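#help-structures
NK: newbie question, is this the right format to request a structure? protein is ABC-type quaternary amine transporter
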Amino acid sequence: MSIEIQGVGKRFGDFVALENIDLSIPTGQLTALLGPSGGGKSTLLRIIAGLENADEGTVEIEGVNATQLPPQKRNVGFVFQHYAAFKHMTVAKNVAFGLEIRKRPKHEIKAKVAELLELVHLSQFADRLPSQLSGGQRQRMALARALAIEPSVLLLDEPFGALDAKVRKELRDWLRRLHDEVHVTTVFVTHDQEEALEVSDSIVVINEGRIEQIGSPDDLYDRPANEFVLSFLGPVTQLGDRSIRPHDIAVSPIEISSAVEGRITRWTRVGFEVRLEVTPTDPRFEDRVLVSLTRAEASGLGVGEGSLVWLRPMDGALTLV
């Protein structure tokens, strides 16, 4: 179910949280709102949900103008970072809550809860309390509860932010598979670039209340609209007077023309990757250059800390002045 946002603005006193936001989210798509803290992404999500009122502009959900509708009339499911579980209720009761307040028949509620708990792999924990679950399990319970009311739109506000890195990775893989099964239009807020690139169909980069760029993960990573998008979506370094990704730099132990000369001042191995810091010998270039190589590439160079090397962009590499 599509979402159409036109001319939305929001201020908190003198602070401009959002300014003239236009955004179209197609039916069935998983869209990430990505940006730094305070950039406006959570405010936009809360306006879609009806938890905040826009100062200007309109929000349309499923072809209906929802700008003035209260949250309960918008048919959206909302999942927060910190679960918001009913601590005194079992997992099954938490999932059933939205259906019970809508006075659905008991047999329908029972069947729906069983279906959802199986979908999120929590059937065996139906009678446990939330406190007896791990963080990842509680977040899956929260997603099941949001899906129980069969929302037109599922909204997730940094749903995995409170979890450790390993669990976050597992849950974002699971979220992508879940979305492919249920096909509900989903919007999630994150400041984690890897999460957005890995999970979403489309990414909306928001900074200082404005949209910097909208596109697929590949579009934004390979063809950023500006230096902010380049630097926010993955690592970036300075090579001479240009911004470039560290893995797009070619390293040579032999002098080559039109290359930046420098000395390796740090050599760090991180698993399969070797990270170099190279200090340019030209005093005009004050910043150290960060270079990312595979172990095989690094070993083949025959150099180490203190070695003189020459750096240039790889063929086809994206650079911004």
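mod (FA): yep, format's fine, and the tokens are attached above. The domain at 3-229 is CATH 3.40.50.300 (Rossmann fold).
NK: thank you!
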